[in-house]
Specification:
The chain is an all-alpha fold. It has eleven helices and no strands.
Length: 279
């Protein structure tokens, strides 16, 4: 009796197995085999993974549900993503300012990974190092650019225009320079202002705030950027004085601005130069 029951139970199990097999389509079984054939994932596995994924996506929802090793395909995709990123990190090479796009793309790719995938990237420290090198280069470039724009603007406003203009007006006021002679010399100063004044004021000086902000975004405690901010405020004051003189108006506090440029500005310029980062 027991032997008959065993036979019946075995038959029922066999029927269930055969029934399950019969429910799985040939397409689903083919996809399972494709996934099984992936084997060890290497950099050469991209096409095989893509073909397996495409084949799986082409299945009906019922067939997809019957693919029992789909998790293996997901793991293969994840592994390929990791080793591909590792290869690109190894190929970074010398970091320059031109490396920004490539490094940013690698960082974006890393940040889109899951925590487990990120933990699997064996050379992430190299990417971190590249980011640090790039940041140092950018900060040095931005600081140098801002310094050039501010220092050249200060020179233009004060040495090339304001101081000569004040001298002419002073000599004209004392009678050492006739009105006609003063007018000729003033016109000679106003001409380069008309050519360069707008460019210096609207481009060089205004651009420096963006450069300073970029540095402080990367390094909030950057001493050079803070000093450049002080320098920018001074240059804006020099610009205001120069513009007033261009309109034939001499403000009462012109001597305060002049003294600041001759007495205080050189010290600030030296401090900026000393704090200038190198990369």
């Amino acid at each position: 009796m027991k032997s008959i029951k065993r036979i019946i139970a075995f038959a029922l199990i066999l029927c269930m197995v055969l029934s399950l097999c019969a429910c799985k389509s040939s397409e689903a079984r083919a996809v399972e085999q494709q996934i099984k054939n992936l084997g060890e994932i290497t950099l050469d596995s991209e096409q095989a993974i893509k073909e397996a994924e495409d084949a799986y996506n082409a299945l009906s929802s019922e067939d997809q549900a019957s693919v029992k090793n789909y998790d293996v395909l997901e793991q293969a995709e994840s592994r390929y993503m990791v080793i591909s990123l590792e290869k690109e990190i190894d190929e970074i090479g010398e970091v320059t300012l031109e490396s920004e796009t490539a490094i940013s793309e690698l960082v974006d790719a890393y940040e889109k990974m899951t925590e487990d995938e990120q933990a699997s990237v064996s050379n992430y420290e190299k990417l971190e190092g590249a980011v640090e090198e790039l940041t140092a280069l950018q900060i040095a470039d931005w600081c140098n650019d801002a310094y050039y724009k501010l220092s050249s603007s200060a020179e233009f406003y004060m040495d090339d225009y304001t101081i000569p203009m004040l001298i002419i007006l002073a000599l004209n006021g004392t009678g050492d320079l006739s009105d006609e002679e003063a007018a000729i010399q003033i016109d000679s100063l106003r001409m380069p202002w008309m050519i360069r004044g707008a460019e210096v004021g609207s481009t060089r000086v205004s651009d420096t705030q963006e450069l300073i902000d970029k540095v402080l975004e990367k390094d909030p405690d950057n001493e050079c950027a803070k000093l450049l901010g002080e320098m920018r405020e001074k240059v804006l004051t020099y610009q205001e004085l120069a513009e007033s003189l261009y309109d034939y108006y001499v403000p009462d506090d012109w001597d305060v601005v002049y003294d600041d440029y001759t007495d205080n500005y050189p010290d600030l310029d030296a401090r900026v130069s000393e704090a200038m980062p190198t990369a």
